[in-house]
Prior knowledge:
By secondary structure, this protein is α/β, with parallel strands linked by helices. It has a single domain, classed as Rossmann fold. Helix content is 31%, strand content 29%. The chain contains six helices and 14 strands. It has helices spanning 19-28, 35-55, 91-100, 147-158, 175-184, 212-217; strands spanning 2-3, 12-14, 59-65, 71-77, 81-87, 105-113, 120-126, 135-139, 142-143, 166-170, 172-173, 189-192, 198-199, 205-206. The strands form four sheets. Strands 1-2-12-10-8-5-6-7 form an eight-stranded mixed β-sheet, sandwiched between helices. A hairpin with a 5-residue loop joins strand 3 (59-65) and strand 4. Helix 1 crosses helix 2 (35-55) and helix 2 (35-55) crosses helix 3. The longest helix is centred in the N-terminal third of the chain and has 21 residues, at 35-55. It is globular.
Amino acid sequence: xxxxxxxxxxxxxxxxxxxxxxxxxxxxxxxxxxxxxxxxxxxxxxxxxxxxxxxxxxxxxxxxxxxxxxxxxxxxxxxxxxxxxxxxxxxxxxxxxxxxxxxxxxxxxxxxxxxxxxxxxxxxxxxxxxxxxxxxxxxxxxxxxxxxxxxxxxxxxxxxxxxxxxxxxxxxxxxxxxxxxxxxxxxxxxxxxxxxxxxxxxxxxxxxxxxxxxxxxxxxxxx
Length: 223
């Protein structure tokens, strides 16, 4: 499903809300979910997101000869693809992309949000050479206020990546974050598995999933 509505500018691609996807969300959103259930279920959703994101990239004709001597009118990617994860939660998506498209060159951006002001601070960026000539999948499971996403997009733009060549892939998106990204960068496409209701006073999404990075990597010690 693709949406282009106000006040959400730009294009947001939402995975079809199938019964299967809702069942997967029921596992990862459950506050009692064990990590051994959370991680593989999240990975399954991430694979669907990456497939949808890769489908948005440009393709060109590629005819191949089949084992029975016929020609299949196939396709191949028309541009080099780069994956850039926003550490640390984005690392979960990077590992899945590495499995699905091992030829993809990967970069990393570290942005930390101040716990009091909620403002993002760039600490580290390492991007592959030639990234300005390809298409970029920007990876971060959560799009909440949009501050981190905007900072990361700014890094890519500073390295010459055209705005329309960026696809931001995330598990959950808040309307506030979508609006923030598309108000500033309307040509950036967003791929998500859910648009949430809103943010609460602590900038957590509702109904939400909690802190994805803590839950995925096992650093959440809360009950």
